[in-house]
Amino acid sequence: MTMFRREGAECVADLTADEVRVLRKVASEVVSLLTEGFDHEDPVVGRLFPDVYPDDPLEAAEYRRFTEGDLKTGKIDQAGAVLATLPTDGAGEVRLDPESAEAWLRAINDARLALGVRLEITDDTDVEEEVDDAVLRDPGSSRVFQLSVYAYLGYLQEALLDAVME
Asked: Matching Pfam families, A to Z (predicted)?
């Protein structure tokens, strides 16, 4: 698996072709969710844009009216930063300056939040145990793949954060 390393001010990683495909798909799905698929009734949208005033729907709607556009644009830009820095021909090196590393961390977090909602992952969920259970039930299931992507994103996020903090 990919490990980010620090080279001067940059965080650098060598991604496999499979990692590039997964990251491209995940970032593209986040962009799609925030553009074509944006629906306030979707629990993923609710997780990515939580109500600041959950007990006051009018205040929450007013706050959302003034902030949602910028927040949505920021999230789209962060996912776009991932797409822009991925190798174009399969496997390859990724070099992230501090601003790009920050965008990657935020984009990975958004993708994990979205996937976590879809997979019904909670703070109490043991992802390793979930993967093992899903493999026992049906090793070729989409749930096994999605849980594996969720776990990979967590690993990648931690590796990048470690490199940023060096």
From this structure: DUF2017
Distance CA 78, CA 44 (A): 17
Task: Give the start-end residues of each E strand in 68-157.
Answer: 92-96
The mean per-residue pLDDT over the stretch 132-143 comes to 95
pTM for the whole structure: 0.93
Q: In what order do the strands lie in the sheet with 10-15?
A: 5-7, 10-15, 92-96
| Per-residue pLDDT at 155 exceeds 80 | yes
Two tokens, residue 128? 């390793």
Percent of the chain with pLDDT over 70: 99
Beta bridge partners of residue 12, listed in sequence order: 5, 95
Q: What are phi and psi of 7, to 5 degrees?
A: -130, 100
CB atoms within 10 A of CB 138: 10
The domain ranges of the chain are 5-165
What confidence tier does 1 reach under pLDDT thresholds 50, 70, 90? low
